[in-house]
Design goal:
alpha/beta; 7-stranded mixed sheet; 6-stranded mixed sheet; 20 strands; binds NADP nicotinamide-adenine-dinucleotide phosphate
Length: 483
């Protein structure tokens, strides 16, 4: 079994404590992925020191030269879409189509982001004194920590590392414990692209062991985190102790409200696409359908047909539409939620079981599941399940539906399906979410800002042009020309 290393100051190095952990393919436990470092605080400290040392030269590099280094990486990423997609499929479990699609999306987003190197615009303002020019310029914030989850193990790191590099920041990258291999492959491509030593550093291990050492490190100027709300809260506390900037992208309990919509077939297929992609393990997955009573029977029937038709299988299998969930613990948690729905009086209308036999015994595979007769206070209507489970809540009318949609601590993505212009307007104005989707499912685009409100997000939105506001800060310059 291959033993992997951290990447610090341009070299692949063993973790300070000499400890490792093993991982296997979540869709086939007989397929060993390798042995990975269990890093600790001293490894984090070395990585931060390397990134701080590299910062001055990287930040001083002309923006188009920095961009050229990143272009070299993008070309390599583009050449390796299929190869990296296969690694992703083996390591995370999503289908090969989804995996290759994720890497291709990464290429697309990189091509947008890299242009920001030469678009780091500032301001020029008239002075109140004679012969003085006032300017406000952007400068990189310093060393940035990129802490990422397992559900998009290629795309999420790209959304943090690449804009950081483009802005002139250096990086300490901590991938999820469950998906270090994608992090290693990305780092190898950055190394091959000639990114100078110390500019990107990779430390692998458990967030519960080394996370505080990252977010509490005084050498870290900013933390860009994607993951659960509980961990985001912890990072926020640690970052506050040394005034590090934060960009937190966290959980969701995203609703789709259906009210007076004539094309229910379209609504059902959009909702299912948004609910079951990546086995429902998406922060923006639709997990609650909120439907007016007058359309509920018809919509539930369509949803039930579509949910029952999903093929669950091994990610590399060309017929598979939904892969396994990430690991045994996540699978048990999801099954616990389905059980709670039964206990609390809801109806498991479709699915609801762990699959067994053949390949199903080599991972945690769960049927696509539809739960009806759900009330807004049931556990499955409140908690983020993060699995292939969709629940349906019936409401009297649009107004009650909007209230139910907003009645959550989360505020990431939200959808409405309606023909009525006044409902669209009301929803746009009053939906409590970072991203509002009207008459389609919750799928984001490559160049649009991405983020949430309430317990779903804090700090600058990522992905689009707003991302540079996180990785840069302002410097105000007064120049007297004729002293
Ligand atoms: P997670 O448990 O919060 O972990 C995310 C990352 O934080 C991992 O690298 C994890 O390391 C690390 N971590 C854990 N404890 C830490 C600590 N004390 N200090 C610093 N870092 C720490 O989330 P996950 O289970 O990987 O991902 C699923 C969650 O991510 C869901 O809630 C989902 O909604 C959310 N998510 C949000 C978005 C968004 O953009 N809003 C996108 C994708 C996912 P280990 O892996 O070693 O524990």
């Amino acid at each position: 079994m291959e033993q992997y290393a951290n990447f610090i100051d341009g070299a692949w190095v063993a973790p300070s404590g000499g400890e490792y952990y093993q991982l296997c393919n979540p869709g086939n436990k007989d397929d060993a992925l390798g042995s990975f470092p269990l890093s600790r605080a001293p490894d984090v400290d070395k990585a931060v020191t390397a990134a701080r040392t590299a910062f001055a030269a990287w930040a001083a590099m002309l923006p188009d030269q920095r961009a050229n280094c990143v272009y070299a990486f993008i070309d390599l990423l583009d050449k390796n879409v299929r190869k990296l997609g296969e690694v992703l499929c083996r390591e995370q479990g999503k289908t090969l189509g989804e995996s290759v699609g994720e890497v291709a999306r990464g290429v697309k987003e990189c091509r947008y982001i890299v242009g920001e190197a030469t678009r780091l615009e500032g301001m020029s303002l008239p002075s109140e004194r004679p012969n003085v020019t006032n300017a406000v310029v952007r400068v990189p914030i310093g060393v940035v920590a990129a802490i990422t989850p397992w559900n998009f193990p290629v795309l999420t790191p790209i959304r943090k590392i690449i804009p950081a590099l483009v802005a002139g920041c250096t990086v300490v990258f901590k991938p999820s414990y469950d998906t270090p291999l994608c992090g290693i492959e990305l780092t190898r491509l950055l190394e091959q692209a000639g990114i100078p030593k110390g500019v990107v550093n990779l430390v692998i291990g458990r967030g519960s062991v080394m996370g505080d050492a990252i977010s509490g490190h005084p050498g870290i100027a900013g933390i860009s985190f994607t993951g659960s709300t509980a961990v985001g809260r912890r990072i926020n506390e640690k970052a506050a102790s040394h005034f590090a900037k934060i960009q937190l992208e966290m959980g969701g309990k995203n609703p789709a409200l259906v009210a007076d919509f004539s094309n229910l077939e379209f609504a059902a297929s959009q909702i299912c696409g948004a609910a079951f992609a990546n086995a429902g393990q998406r922060c923006t997955a639709v997990s609650r359908v909120v439907v007016v009573e007058s359309q509920a029977d018809a919509l539930e029937k369509l949803l039930a047909e579509k949910v029952a038709a999903y093929t669950i299988g091994y990610g590399m299998d060309k017929d598979a539409q939904i892969g396994p969930v990430i690991n045994e613990k996540a699978g048990k948690d999801i099954m616990g939620y389905i059980e709670s729905a039964r206990r609390e009086g809801a109806t498991v209308a479709v699915g609801g079981n762990r699959l067994t036999g053949g390949i199903y015994d080599k991972g945690f595979y769960i049927e696509a599941t539809l739960i009806t007769n759900v009330t807004p206070t049931m556990t499955v209507a409140v908690d983020e399940i993060f699995g292939p489970v969709l629940v349906v809540i019936r409401v009297k009318d649009f107004a009650e539906g909007l209230r139910v949609c907003n009645d959550t601590r989360y505020g990431l993505a939200t959808c409405v399906f309606t023909d009525r212009r006044e409902y669209i307007f009301d929803f746009m104005q009053r939906a409590e979410a970072g991203m509002v989707h009207i008459n389609h499912g919750s799928s984001s685009e490559s160049f649009m800002p991405f983020g949430g409100v309430k317990d779903s997000g804090l700090g600058n939105f990522g992905i689009g042009s707003t991302n540079k506001d996180f990785f840069t800060t302002w410097k105000v310059i007064y120049t007297q020309f004729k002293p």
